[in-house]
Structures are given as C-alpha cells and as structure tokens.
Design a protein that fits this description.
Distance between the termini of chain B: 7 Å
Number of strands of chain A: 8
Radius of gyration of chain A: 20 Å
Number of strands of chain B: 10
Number of domains of chain B: 2
Helix content of chain B: 25-40%
Shape of chain B: globular
Structural class of chain A: alpha/beta
Number of helices of chain B: 8
Order of helices and strands of chain A: HHEHEHEHEHHHHEHEHHHEHEH
Largest sheet of chain B: 5 strands, mixed
Helix content of chain A: 40-55%
Chains: A alpha/beta (about 400), B alpha/beta (about 260), C alpha/beta (about 450)
CATH class of one domain in chain A: Alpha Beta
Order of helices and strands of chain B: EEEHEEHEEEHHHHEHEH
Strand order of the largest sheet of chain A: 2-1-3-4
Number of helices of chain A: 15
Distance between the termini of chain A: 48 Å
CATH topology of one domain in chain A: Rossmann fold
CATH superfamily of the largest domain in chain B: ATPase, nucleotide binding domain
Strand content of chain A: 5-15%
CATH architecture of the largest domain in chain B: 2-Layer Sandwich
Strand content of chain B: 15-25%
Oligomer: heterotrimer
CATH class of the largest domain in chain B: Alpha Beta
Chain lengths: ~400, ~260, ~450
C-alpha cells in the first residue's frame, strides 16, 4: 500500500461508510463470499474462519413508509431502514444474512429479509441468551455457536478447523486493539484526530474485510503518532446510547458555535462493537468465543444481572468517564427504542452525581439538524458557564 | 334507478370540510363545501345552502338527504333531518364508481383519514383498508405546511412539481414531519424541495397502507389531497400503478351518499 | 336467554383475596413477578407466599381506577420513562413512584408494599427493564430474571428446555439464599402440579368455545383467566377452574351461552386492552357478533395440544395426563413446568412469527370464525404489536380481517374513534360476506 496521510485514509473510511454496498460488491467481484449481519452479537470470527466476510447491515438514511406494512409503525427507524433495504433487494448480492436474537425490533427486520426479501434459504438466526451473566447462558450459547458453525460449514462447503478459528480470532482481536488505540487518542486534550473521524473508521470497520481494515488502521495510527495535536478539545462530549450510524450527528457535535469535541461513543456502532477481546490460544475455540462475547459491554437488551438486577454496562460507562473525562454526556437513542431509554432513566442520576451535565437526542431516519444543534449548544453553554 | 327524477342531496361531513352535492338521477346539479370547524351542523347547512343555490333548487324540492362521513350521525337531527346515513367507505365506493365506471378501487386521501376501497361492477363495497393512527392527519398536515410556506394548498402543489432535489423527511407521523419541514426551512432548503418532500411523505403513508390490499387494475384517486399532482405522481410511482383522479375528487362521498338514497345504485 | 355463570363471584373473590394478601400481609413473603413466570418455585418457600404480577395488576387497576391509572402513567413519564414505553410497565412503576397502589376491590393503599423478592422473566426488552426499574426505585430489591428463550415448538427442544430448567434450578438456590428459607420440594411439587393443572383446565374451558353457540364471550373470558395469572398454584385455583369447566361443559350440552345471539363468530388477536373494549363490544353486540376465541385470553394462561406434525391445534390436553405426570423429583417438576410454560401459545407466538400465524389459522378454522379482528397494542414490544402486521396481509383474502390501533392501559394511545370506525367496518364486511358479497 502506498504511503498515505491520515486525511486520505480517513477519507477512504468515509467513502466506505457512505457507499457500503459498493465496497461489499467490490469484494464480491474478487470472488469473496459475503454475509450480512444485523447485530453485533453475531460471532463474526466463525464466518471469517470459513472465508466469508461479514458485512454489517446499516441504515441507508432514506425516508420511506413502505416498511410500515411489514413492521409496526412504532418500531425504531433503524429496524425499518434495514428491513426496507431487504425489501428493495439492495443486498441481494449477499450470500447470507445472519443475526443473533437480541432486541425485538432488529429481529423483526431480520424476519422481513427472511420472509419477504428472498433470504429464506440463506439465513440463520443464532439463538442468543437474553440474560447473559449466568452459567446456563454460557452452556446454551455453546450449543448455539456449535450449530451456527455447522451451518456455516455447510454453506461454505468447507470444514472450519481450530486453526481457522484461531486465525480469525487473532485478526479480529487485532482489529479491536487497533480501534481501541485509535479511540485512545481522544483522551488527549490535543488529539491528532477528531472524534467523528475515529467514529468513521470504527463504522467502516464493521462493513470491511478485517485484514484490509487492519492494514489501514495500522497505517493511520502510525501517521497519527507522528502528527501534532489539533486544537484544544474545548467542551469534551461523550455519547452513550443505541445504534447510531449517522456520522452527521458526530460531525454536528464538532461544528457548534462553541468549541466542542466528541471524545467517546458508547454504542453498538462504536465502542460496544469492539471493546473486548476473545481469549487466544485456548484449546476450545468456541468456548473462547463465548467467553469473549459474553464478557463484552452488554447491550441494554441483555443487561440484567440475576440476583441484583444490576446493569453491568454502567460500570463500563463510569470507567469511560474516568478515562476520557467528558465535560458533558449526550444520550443518543433511536426513537421507539425500548431498552436504551429505560437504561437512561437509571444512568442519568449516576451521571448527575458525577457532576456531569447531559442532554438527550432522539434519533430518527433523518436528523433535525437545527433542533439538535440548539440542544447541543445549550449543553455546551451550560458546561462553559459552569467551568471555572 | 329508484331515485330517478327525484332530487336528492348527499352530505359528507368530514374532519376538515363538509361537502354537499345535489343530484337528480345521474346528473350532478350543484355542489359546495364548507369548513367543518367546531359546528358540523352549521357547516352542513352552509354547504347545502350553497349547493342548492348553484343548482337553483329550493330546500323543499329535495326528496331526501343522505349523510355520510365521520360526523354523519350528528346530522340526523333537526334542522337537517337527514333521511338516512351511510358509512363513508360505502359512500366513497359508490361515488367513485359513479365518477368512473371502469374503476374498481378508489384511494381516498382525506383531511384526517385515508382509505382504499375495492368494489364490484355495481359499486358495491368488497373490501376496505384504512390508515392506522400514526398516519392520521395528512390533509391537516398539508394545510399546515402550505401555511408555513405562505402558500395556498394549490400553490404548494404546483411548487412541489418544480423540485429539483430529493429531500428526505422522517415519516413517523404528520407531527414529526411538520417538525422536520420547519427544520429544513431553517436550514435554507429550497421551498420547492420542501414542498415535494412533504408530498412524498404523504404519498408514502398512503402507499404503505395500500400494500395490505391487492390493488385492481383500474384505480382512481379521490379526496381533497388527490388534487395535488405532486402527491399523485409519487403515489403512482410507489404503488407502481397508473392513477386517475376522479372529477370532483373531494365530493365522491357526498355523491355516493346521494346515490344511495332509497337503496339506489 | 342469557346464561349467568354461577362460579363468577368465586373468581372475583379469589383474585381480590390474592391482591389483598399482598397488600396487607403482616407475615410471610411478598413476591413480585411477571405474569409469564413459572410460579410454583416461589411456593416451595412456604405456605405464606403472597404474589403480585405485573400485567394482571396493571390491567385490573386501569379498569377499576382509570383516573388513578392516568396519574400513575404520568408519574412514570415524569420520572423519565418514555411515552412509547409499555403502558403496563408505566402504570406499575408509577404506583411505586407515587407510593400508592390500587386493587380490584376499590382499595387504594397509601404506601407501596415492598416485595421481598422479584421473580420474573425476560419476555421482551421492556419487560426485562420493568422490574429492574422497580427494584431500583424500591432501594434495590433482589431480582431474578429467567430467560425464556422459547419460540414455536420450544417445549420439544431439549436444549431450550434444559437451558430454562437450569435457570429455574439456579433460581431456586438463589431464593433459598436470599430469603434464608429452606426450600420444600414437597410444597413445590404440589404447587407445580396445581400450576400445570390450572393451565390445562383453562385450555379445556377455552376449547369448549368451539361449540355453537360459544358458551363464553370475551368479556367473561377476560375476567375468568386473571385468577390463573395471579396465582395458579393453589388447591383453590384448581377447584375454581374444575368447577368452571364442569359448568361450561354443561352449557355446551344444553346449548346455553352468556350471549345466546351469536350471528358472527370472531377470532381476536390482540392484548386485552382496558379502554375501548366496551365500545367495541357494543358495536359488535348490536350486530350479534361475539369474540369466541382470543389468543391473549386463551394463550397467556392456557395450554392446548399445540404443534402436532407442524400444524397447530387448539384442542385441549387431557387432564388425566396432568395427574399421571412424573413430578417425583425437583428436577422433574422443574422440567415439566418449563415445558408447559414454553408450550403456552403466547410464549410461542412472541418469539416465532410462524407459530403465531399457524395459531391464527388454526383458531379461525377450529372456532369456525366469520371474521378476524386484529388489535396491535402501540405500547407493546412483542407480537402483540408487530405480529399482526403480516397477519393482515395473510388473512385478508380468506376472511374479513380488520386491524385497529389500541393500547393496553394508556387511554391516550387508544385510538377510540378510529377503533370504533374500524369495528363498524369489520361488521359491515362480515355482513357483506355472509350475504355473498365482499369476496374477490
């Protein structure tokens, strides 16, 4: 690969996020098998080990109402958009569509693909526990992952060996570590890269061949380490919430009338996607995968510790606050999402106790830019007045 | 026809407007509409009065009055003393069939409710599909957007046809759409593009409803919003069918009501 | 002439007594939990266990105290719960926030009785959060959620049965630790057999509605199943439902019905929404239309033959099978309980769209329906909102099918005028179909 500056690499990541289908089709043109996935609980390593590149299904951000006659009105726009893409046959080039049972909205989007978009024979639903912090969950998932592995072997007509799995785990872990390093830049007051740029690379990684992505990330990180920092971060804002693949919102945060920087994003389209590792060099590869996936930052739809009812995700969020030192928190969630807003009810008092102001933004197919700007600027104003 | 020769009035008491039609047999003698407001009886009286004036018929010349529409029952008592009432979907089917004998499906896009009716070769109702709650209020939304842009509804419709850029607005409901439209205006988006986005939003809601019912070949559009060519253009594209707008599209309910007098066909 | 059920008051009293016990008990254990949980394990902790379940309580509170319920929901929203959240959840949480609870005998108690444990299930993403929120607001009540991963035919999948059974087994150990009580297998097994029996009894009662005229209408069905939901583990519950079964069998023999004029038989797929039901019922009754079968009232607390060779049947299970069940050990009892719960139509439909659609088809056929009324609830996360979207498309050609928007207990979200219009339309379509029209 030729030497590229950070700007060129980020631009390439951005292009991929803007035209993920084009990128996926370019892989297909090289003879690559592709599997779409709708939820980050899918153990991508199993697909990768079989020589299939997993490509996350993300929003197209085009408003439409046709999916309303397949999924109820009051399901989130992310699920509607994903369903619509299936109905429009935008992803017919995929060899497979896979999801894990997670939230009901995305399960229904998946069902639309299976029932109405021609994916009946090339789909797999991985039964994934909803209560994950239990021993029975781990045992159950072992069976689920085992069945999934067998399915993938049938589809790819290739036995997946332990070596294949170990290789895939290492590639994916490397990707996770690289993404983590990228986000770590944002801890600095003068980061050489902006939050939206990091979010862009993270989002792109979810639709890319991980080996290619890793090469680009390595180059990017190497360049950035030599780069001087940009302007001081100003008001440091952290986002926590649900699936958000609209990079325009993150761009908006850094284009306020106040100097503000996005310093962290806790969502399944950002940190929750990669902030964990699968143990390497274990004799039982599936068990290692289970340990990794069950140990990640929990999705709110799966975050309920038996015995206490604790939401484990909050511990991670508190750690992120400690590490990234945001001045303000933006709660971001899909309109009509069930688990996220319920979590915010419990999370808000914690954030308040830490003395951190917050605001809530409700996502839909399109972003009401002016309204969001007003809310974000109000938050920035509260922060800058309170700051000494 | 049973009511051949008799002069009959049909009243369609809707959310936004109350319409009156005067008919003799197969002939429409006159029609008029009045905003329903908070007094549907007064609105019906006004509409009826003007329709009779344009028909040059006196009130006493009427053999009967049939009411339909969401507020049809409120017109039963004095002073209107309607002869009978008929559900709006049945009236719409008859009215649409009357206006276009080749049609077998009508999509009626009204002020608050939109629905699609499938009927037989005599205009008898076979099936109906109606919008869900989130899709309420398309006509009200349209009027509101026109007002926000300082235009009449007709001007809004004409402006939409001049759009050169596709703009998306969230389509959860008319309320959120209105909020988005205002946001777009504040961002400086071209008014024609905003007008077209609003038309597209409404047509998408209607089209989504239509997927529940297999559509026949001969489809017509009716209701006040059918007068928007931009909306009809989008709707036609979305349902992948040619759409004809009937004459007097907002009056088909009143026409159907009049046609139903004494069980008439 | 309309038949009057002799067992009616006994059912009302049973439900009320259970609620009063929870509210006013000075001894024993208060257990809060989900309607959809397996209840027998709680009864292994002793004979002084007082239960309250989320859905039946919220539904009955809304029906008895509409104004209080509105205040509860408002309090929950002010407390941060979203407008779009489950209205049962909001009503229930709102009571906790307002520190006030209202029950079916018109009692309003100041001071919310804090449960000792919460024993619940992960029914949906909201349900999971529901009890977490209640636990948090009450200062951290010990909470044990069970993942009923379920779906169509789930009770026949040993992997799923074992998974759920393992959780219940762990849960029992947890209950002992938390309460400090020794778990009695004797009490548990007795409660388990009663629980299974009541579920099968209710299924038998519902299946009798296949007769013409159907002996029971929806109004009665909605009122007769809550006792099973509230506490189906007692000997008294078994006696109640045995008496009801006997009575309804008699009604079928004598061709009696609580509503004799039944010109149209309706299958209803929707949650039992509190508001608007009387208005819908009036429109239907005027046309001689009655809901004779309903997935929610039948399937939330009743078991049927279910899937046999890929086809669903609403035929009842043999009661003798319950008596013959081997519940000789704790694990065996757990396993049978889990299977029966996973076999509930609602547990199956809520996880598998295909199961729901099979059930609907079977219900329309077996109950000889003239129309299918769909009422998705705007607050509900599950198939009770979404499942009916596809069903409209599937059934519209076969049978008059109309869908109207509703909500469980939030009157603001209940589209009453729209629902009334659509119910009228539904009647019109059924009438036209019967006359030979309304067919493509």
């Amino acid at each position: 690969m030729t030497k590229k500056g950070p700007g060129a690499i980020i631009k390439r990541f951005r292009e991929i996020t803007q035209k993920p289908h084009d990128y996926a089709k370019s892989l297909k043109a090289k003879g690559q098998l592709l599997s779409g996935y709708m939820c980050t609980h899918v153990p991508e390593e199993i697909l990768y080990a079989a020589g299939i590149v997993p490509v996350r299904i993300l929003s197209s951000h085009v408003s439409q109402a046709m999916s309303r006659s397949y999924i109820h009105e009051t399901y989130c726009s992310f699920s509607h958009d994903c369903a619509y893409q299936g109905l429009q046959h935008s992803c017919d080039y995929l060899d497979l569509i896979v999801t894990s049972s997670s939230c009901i909205h995305m399960s229904e989007a998946f069902n639309v693909w299976v029932r109405f978009a021609g994916f009946q024979e090339k789909s797999f639903l991985i039964p994934y526990p909803h209560i994950i912090q239990t021993k029975p969950a781990s045992d159950f998932l072992a069976a689920s992952f085992g069945e999934f592995k067998q399915f993938v072997e049938r589809v790819s007509k290739k036995a997946i060996t332990d070596d294949d799995l170990e290789r895939a785990v290492k590639v994916y872990n490397h990707n996770r570590r690289l993404l983590k390093r990228l986000w770590e830049f944002l801890r600095r007051d003068h980061s050489p890269i902006t939050g939206p740029e990091v979010a862009t690379a993270t989002l792109a990684s979810q639709v890319m061949d991980k080996e290619e992505c890793n090469q680009m990330l390595e180059q990017l990180i190497q360049r950035l380490e030599a780069e001087p920092g940009k302007a001081p971060s100003g008001v440091r804002l952290m986002v926590t919430g649900g699936a958000c693949d609209d990079l325009g919102i993150f761009d908006l945060i850094e284009r306020l009338n106040y100097r503000a920087s996005l310093v962290f994003v806790d969502s399944c389209t950002a940190a929750r996607y990669f902030w964990f590792e699968v143990p390497e060099d274990r004799p039982n590869k599936l068990k290692a995968l289970i340990e990794g996936y069950l140990g990640r930052i929990p999705c709110p739809a799966k975050d309920n510790v038996p015995g206490t009812g604790e939401k484990k995700r909050f511990r991670f969020i508190q750690q992120f606050i400690e590490d990234f030192k945001p001045d303000g928190v933006v709660f971001l969630y899909q309109r009509f999402c069930s688990p996220q807003p319920m979590d915010i009810v419990a999370l808000k008092p914690i954030v308040e106790k830490l003395g951190i102001p917050s605001t809530e933004l409700e996502l839909d197919t399109t972003v009401p830019v002016i309204q969001f700007r007003t809310q974000l600027e109000a938050l920035a104003e509260i922060i800058t007045r309170v700051a000494p | 026809m049973k009511n051949d020769g008799k002069i009959v009035a049909g009243l369609d008491a809707g959310h936004i407007a109350t319409k009156a039609v005067i008919m003799r047999g197969q002939k429409i003698l006159g029609y008029s509409a009045s905003p329903t407001g908070f007094d549907v009886v007064a609105a019906a009286e006004t509409a009826l009065h003007h329709a009779l004036e344009t028909s040059r018929i006196s009130r006493w010349g009427l053999a009967g009055i049939v009411s339909t529409g969401i507020f049809r029952e409120l017109l039963k008592e004095s002073p209107l003393d309607v002869t009978m009432t008929i559900p709006e979907y049945a009236a719409d089917a008859k009215g649409a069939f009357f206006q276009n004998k080749d049609s077998r499906t009508v999509i009626d896009i009204g002020g608050n409710i939109h629905k699609a009716m499938h009927y037989d070769q005599n205009g008898n109702l076979l099936d109906v599909i109606q919008n869900d709650k989130c899709a309420d209020g398309l006509g009200i939304f349209y009027t509101s957007i026109a007002r926000s842009l300082g235009l009449s509804e007709q001007e809004l419709s004409e402006l939409a046809l001049k759009s050169t850029k596709d703009v998306s607005i969230a389509i959860q409901c008319a309320l959120s759409a209105e909020s988005e439209v205002i946001d777009l205006m504040c961002q400086g988006v071209d008014a024609a593009d905003v007008a077209d986005a609003a038309s597209k939003f409404m047509s998408e809601r209607v089209a989504a409803m239509c997927t529940y019912m297999p559509l026949t070949k001969e489809i017509v559009a009716a209701g006040g919003l059918a007068k928007s060519p931009a909306l009809i253009k989008h709707l036609s594209r979305l349902i992948k069918r040619d759409l004809t707008v009937v004459d007097l599209p907002e009056y088909i309910g009143a026409i159907g009501a009049a046609m139903s007098y004494e069980g008439g066909k | 002439m309309a038949y009057t059920l002799t067992t009616w008051n006994d059912f009302k009293n049973y439900q009320t007594t259970r609620y009063r016990n929870y509210l006013f008990a000075t001894q024993g254990l208060r257990c809060m939990g989900s309607t959809w949980s397996i209840l027998a394990p709680l009864k292994g902790l002793g004979e002084d266990i007082h239960l309250i379940g989320g859905e039946p309580h919220a539904a009955s509170a809304a029906g008895t105290f509409p104004d209080e319920s509105r205040e509860d929901i408002a309090a929950a929203e002010i407390g941060g719960l979203g407008f779009h959240s489950c209205s049962y959840l909001k009503l229930f949480t709102g009571e906790v926030i307002r520190d006030k609870i209202a029950i079916t005998d018109k009692t309003i108690k100041e001071g919310y009785p804090r449960p000792d444990v919460i024993w619940t299930t992960h029914l949906c993403s909201q349900h999971s959060k529901w009890y977490q929120e209640v636990s948090r607001r009450l200062g951290g009540v010990p909470l044990y959620p069970i993942d009923m991963i379920g779906g169509g035919n789930a009770e026949k999948d040993p992997k799923i049965v074992d998974y759920v059974s393992d959780q219940v087994q762990e849960g029992i150990r947890w209950l002992e630790r938390i309460t400090g009580r020794e778990f009695s297998d004797k009490l548990f097994i007795k409660a388990a057999r009663n629980e299974i029996k009541v579920l099968v009894l209710w299924g038998n009662i519902c299946a009798l509605n296949m007769a013409a005229p159907a002996p029971l209408d929806e109004r009665r069905l909605i009122a007769l199943f809550p006792p099973a939901v509230v506490d189906r583990t007692t000997d008294e519950a078994v006696r109640l439902y045995e008496a009801l079964l006997k009575e309804v069998r008699y009604m079928v023999e004598t061709k009696d019905s609580v509503v004799p004029d039944q010109r149209y038989r309706i299958v209803y797929f929707g949650i039992a929404h509190t508001y608007g039901h009387p208005e819908m019922a009036r429109i239907l009754r005027d046309a001689g239309a009655e809901i004779v079968a309903s997935v929610y009232t039948f399937g939330t607390c009743g078991n049927f033959r279910g899937f046999v060779n890929g086809k669903w049947s609403w035929e009842p299970l043999d009661l003798r099978w319950v008596d013959e069940l081997d519940l000789s050990t704790r694990r065996k009892a757990i396993t049978e309980l889990v299977k029966i719960a996973l076999g509930w139509p609602t547990w199956q439909g809520v996880r598998s769209y295909w199961a729901l659609e099979e059930m609907a088809g079977a219900m329309v056929a077996e109950y000889n329906a003239d129309g299918l009324l769909l009422a998705p609830s705007r607050s509900c996360e599950t198939d009770f909102r979404n499942g009916y979207i596809a069903m409209q498309r599937i059934f519209k050609d076969r049978i008059p099918t109309v869908e109207y928007d509703t909500d469980q207990v939030d009157v603001r979200k209940m589209d009453l005028p729209g629902a009334q219009r659509k119910t009228e339309l539904f009647v019109h379509l059924m009438e036209a179909r019967k006359k030979g029209g309304a067919r493509r």
